[in-house]
Fold each of these.
Amino acid sequence: MPAIINQPAFLDTISQYNIDTIVVLDRNGIIKYRSEKMQPSLGWQSAEVIGEDIRSYIHEEDIAFFEMALAAAYSRGTTETFTYRVRACNGQWRWLTSELINLLTLQAVQGFILRSRDVTENVEAAAKIKEKEAYYESLFHNNPDSVSLLNSEGIIEDANESTCQIFGYTKAEIINRHFASFILPESVVAATQAFEKAWAGIPSWIRGKAKHKNGTQLELSLTIIPIIHQSKVIKVQEISQDITQIIRAHKLIKDQAEAQSSIFESVNEGFLTLDKNYYITYINQVCAAFLTQRKEAVLNKPLFRIYPNLVSSLFFRKCKEVEQTGKPVHFQEYFPLTKVTLDFDIYPTKKGFAVHFLDVSEKIAQQENFEKLFFVASKVSNGVLILQADFAIEWANESFLKVLDISLPEVKGKRVSEILGENNVNLATIFEIGQKMQSGIAFSEDISFTKKNEQQIWLHVDITPAVDESGKIKGYFLILSDVSELKEAELSLQRQARDLFIKNQDFQQFTYIISHNLRAPVANALGYTDLLTKVDKNEPVYDELVDKLRTSVTRLDEVIKDINTILTFRDRDKPAEKQLVSVAGVYLQARESLQEALTECGALVVEELDENCMLYANKGYLYSIIYNLISNAISYRAISRQLHLLIKVIKTRNGEIVLRISDNGSGMDLDKVKGQLFKLYKRFNTKVEGKGMGLFLVKYQVEALNGTIVVESQVDEGTIFTITFRADDSQSISN
Amino acid sequence: MKEQYLPLLLEQMIPRAYLIDDDEMSCYLSRFMLKMQKAVDEVITFYEAKEALVAIQAGLEQNDLPSLILLDLNMPLMDGWEFLEALTPLEEKLKDKVQIFILTSSVDPADEKKSQTYSLVSGFIPKPLSAESVNLMMQQLNVNPADSDTTKV
């Protein structure tokens, strides 16, 4: 056999079955030999390539691999296989895998053997697989939705990054868990069914709810797809899309729409929307009630066709105006049939019009009423004043301003006390009224007011506070009427009543005088006269009776004189002739007259006289007062001790003049004599002669001089009479 | 002539009367008339009502009261009305023993009317006290003796 083997025919024949192509290269890479009938894929004839540098067939990007392999073969003898592209006869590139064997030193070859195989088909197939894998990878890993791979038991074998993001777990936490453990119980059944369907080869889609690691709920769109290999389901892929935000957004939109609708329903405004053809697209309850229709009955109906009367309305024209201008309008229209006034707003919308309207009939009626009232308030003869809670003037009518001779801008915002002066009113009164106003109760007050022309008038003020719901005072309404005439009449009536009262008292007193004081001596005289007729002239008692009769008649004469004196003093309607007199001076005159009596009883008189006390008074009265009081002090002195008299004439800080006469006489028990001391013919000391007229006259005279008299007394200690004259009637000499 | 003013029908003279009046002239006259008519044995005069009140209070304790009081109305300090008011609490004890006659210069009917409201007051006599009014008063006293003991004497 060896002989056969060495035959060239043998070699050639067997080499035909060799899938490899053998090329022999010299040390420079020049092709020296190529096995025939081989590598049909390249298409080159051996004759074409022998003597060529192999590098001229190799793709320039792969030359480096070849050189590296050649260098390796050179040094190490053989090389690893290497893959590179070679140009075929038709110009295409073919992939070859080759190895180089260094047979340079072998005498029979003296070159490199390049054993090659065409692997173009393999390389392209591999490249296709790689591309597919990359595509899948991309689909899997970069998918914004969660993608997971489940095995037949539903255990998650792989999951993408989105899965981690959507569910909030790390990949390690997800892998090897059952897919259903992420699904909320309410969605587990549907998800399990879809999973089972997928294993049966049918993909399905469901909506379900799952739970994020942080506990929040996720709305998911789940797609469960079988992965089929060789007609068999090998895995199931689960794709979960997080639609939480979408669902929420939908819900929000729905809620908002409902809220909007409920707003339109709850407002007391009528609201309706019309499309461009005036079909009602929305109508709220108020509007429907206004049209006396159910909402459903008019919805989607053409407004002006179901209410043809409206075509003649301003409303219709305004709708047209909005349609043309695209600008909102606002107007009011009175509907005579229903007797209402509506306040309209019409806005253009994308789809047509939005109409708001409010029934302002009542408001207009109120406004009209208010205008009427305002007219009345501003024109009435009574003063009308509106104050804010802080007493600042908000408004005043013409009459009020006229009284003050001032204009509205001058008073507005000012406080009442600021525009009134001490010349106009008593500010203390105004202050008191202000205090009273804060109580929140309506009241009336009469105020004396002096106008600019110095005319004094009386104002009757009705004050009504305006109170809000919480009871807080918002302001005040003041109505002022000039009641001067009324007030004058009232004051005059009061004066008359007082005078009448005094007159009546006087009359009673006079009756008393007649029946007791006047009649007593008359009765006595009568009695004695009668007795004289019954007694013998010669009896000694007769003369005694005559004497008594004389005494009685004398007494009668005295009483008549007293009555005359009193009546002279009491005629108060005649203004007493007043002159400026010195109180001290009058006292000194009275003392002079009584000097004899004072000396006789050895009285000690101490005086404290302010010469400056001048009084407008009837001098006679003043003299009589002082004379009577000192005379009384002498009469009722204590027998056991020297009479001490203290006379004071002083002026108080208020300008009043005080005359005080104090004695250390027998005094009185004031509790007993109270109320009678100054009455006519009331005597309290029966041991001393007296008619009981002195103090009666003193009191009348003091009162005639606008003064007051006060008495203090202790039995056996003394008496003090204090007479006070008003400051108005007093004057200093310096003035 | 003079005889006709002497007491005609008086069987008994009143042993004692109080005269309360501040007018001395009037008191003299009243006493004179009571004596002249032999109506009262003893007349005790009080110029102040207060003193009479004290005497009556003492008399009540000692069972020594006048059967007649002649009372003036217009008096200083305590007047006739005040005296009557002061007696009101003693009314029960006094009513069978004492009769009060108002003797006043007043001619005001209001005073007479007012006097009738006091049960102790038996009559209203205007001054001056005349023989006729003394007789009338005595008649009234005998018909309605204030004190049965007195009538026996």
Amino acid sequence: MIQREMKEVSLTIDGKKIKAKEGEKILWVALENGIYIPNLCAIYEKMQPSASCRLCFVEVEGEDEPVTACTEPVRECMAVNTRGKIALRLARTSAELLLASHPVNCGHCLKNRSCELQKIAKHLGIKLKTKRFRKLERNLPIDESSPLFIYDPNKCVLCGKCVWVCQEKLGIGAIGFTRRGFKRMVSTFQDKPIGETTCGQCVECVKVCPVGSLVFKNDKRVE
Amino acid sequence: MKFDEIKKQAQSRWREIWNDQVPVILVGTATCGRAAGALEVLQAIKDTVKKQNLNCLVYEVGCMGHCYAEPLVILRKPGYPSICYGHVNPVLAENLINSFILNGDPCLEFVLGALEENDLIPSFSDFPRSKYEQRILLKNCGQINPEEIEHYIANGGYENLSKALQMKPEEIVSEIKRSKLRGLGGAGFPAGDKWDVCRRSEGEPKYLICNGDEGDPGAFMDRAILESDPHSVLEGMIIAGYAIGARHGYIYVRAEYPLAVQRVRNAIHQAEEYKLLGENILGSDFSFDIKLFQGSGAFVCGEETALIASIEGKPGIPRHRPPYPALQGLFGKPTLINNVKTLAYVPHIIKNGAEWRLQIGIGKNKGTAVFALAGKVVNTGLVEVPMGTTLRQIIFQVGGGITKGRRFKAVQIGGPSGGCLPESVLDIPIDFDSLQESGAMMGSGGMVVLDEDDCMVEVARYFLDFTQKESCGKCTLCRLGTKQMLDILEDITKGRGKMEDIETLQELAEDIKQGSLCGLGRTAPNPVLTTLRYFREEYEVHIKEGRCPALRCQPLIAYYIIPEKCARGCDACVGTCTIEAISTDKKRRIKVIDQEKCVKCNTCLAACPPQYDAVIKLSPPDRVPKSEGK
């Protein structure tokens, strides 16, 4: 864990009185105190939050608009509401959008019941099969070239945790983001199968994947 | 060399040109001119001058703003006012030289206008638009050779830099603050405040970036300034660099502007030669250099954090702000980033003082704004008007109204981040705040005029298609939300829309606007939100009746030949139809379109002679009489 500023502040999250280190982001303070805020892309060690999943919206008293909890530092006397109407609306839209482009045949997925997306849907009270949006399938080929794990880009939520581990934390750089817009995905240099790259099979990426996009081949639940 | 000496030298060179002894020929060769054939005209002029062995000067200038009449040529003959000719082609150019320069006949029938007021020829100041225009940023555009630094200096250029270097940096910042200069790249953030934060923030070296990554479809103001008067931008950059204490500057120009890139590169080189850039500028202790950086085609790189990432050699993808670049920007150092026009304003403020600028414009919006007028408007081109001029004045007075006598329908302002405004709001003053309120946005200044033949759903679809493709894909709401919106809009334009789609569209647009990570996502829904706000019934008609009122959405229209109008013996449509969908009904001696075969390519409609005008579009397609078309 990285040392951050030591001065302590008092604040409330959902009415609960909490003491936290000044400058710490709301998300981590809330999680530490047992208050769940949906999130996919947040990494504690990462100094510059990527703020890309748009799920951790909370409302702060005195602010016009909801803020992302992963980027907003706590302040003295701050009053945070994680169940605010607008914040939940934005989070629900983001989650529904992710679910609309995510295969939800969860019964066949190795991550069933340990999937962050399922947890988020439950927390936000939304169905896995969203009616509001169209299903956007990407139909990308599944990469089984690694001896240890399977990469299914169709299930990827682009949280960037695997990329961060591989590039920043371990300095390997076997995987990274490619393409733009709806086509953005995690891939390898020249889209080569992962088994034919500099990947050393450390499987750290598999460990951090919040959904069933990166899973172990020897998982007990393999059909 | 002291600045006075540089200036003296430049002025004497300038007088060699404008001395009323030799004729001078100016050809506008900015991109707008080149697209219309200005380089061929220039070549023809050079050939003619050589052939006739004339003693006259020929040089290239930038964009004069009258893009509708390109290629433009200005002839200046001693004893006459400077005359500007429009729509010049190589043959006309040769004739003009022969008739006017050699024989003194100014060929009035080809004259667009004279530059100075005179008794002989109507001047530009007699144009209705001159009442509204106020050229500050565009003052030099089309008047000086952008590739000659001396032309710029002789017209007062770099004098303000010399003046600014005598001032204290904080004096300059407070002058900019007092002038109420706001970022002209679109968002309108007070420039002085940004400068102040950057000047006070700690970290060395500081950087200055000029954002010339103009990417909105239909916008070309920054390009015109960079191509026509690059030194004004450089001068503004150097002054800004001095004011905030920056050591290095970058000018970020998109690679799709090759001429701007070439002229900026040349301008930097010349400024370095004159010691206006580099170590100890004009003998002061201030050192500053400017590097040219070419953008690689990503629209999102116009967003400041993405632009910075791209200079750092990383993928051009925005990051969360704060920290703002003024505190933590390029390579983690304090960075001031301003648009081309914002920086080009700086020398004028130094020259005339903040009070001068406060007298132009209205309310909190001071100064002028430059707009690129495009679309279905008579006088397309560049316009510079004081803030607070109304949309109606720009479109109908400056722009000369709608082409082909059609009816005005909407004006799309601010590009993909902006909105479509209908006739009912044409009288709002153009400024950052009023436009924001109307749901549009000042944006960079693109203004596309739409007439009754444009379908608003299709326009919204077009812009969503653009932002969807240009979204970097980092954040969920923009990546997936714009894709969902685009799919809905596509369904509506194809007649597959449902009424509940409108509601989904509205909700989604509002959420994306509020929740996206960067400015691209936060403004991408604007075309949808404004068309829903002002043209909702058009969406409903598409969905409920399967009809496109503008007859634009192909799946919702059918081509039909009116039997009464069809000239029996004419075969024009039959001949042009490449898929042979039109046949002759021998019994009734008329032409009939086979609706099953027709691919709606519009060729028959274009081919039908105007005196018959028998081919029409019908929407919905089932309006074609049943007996026909089978």
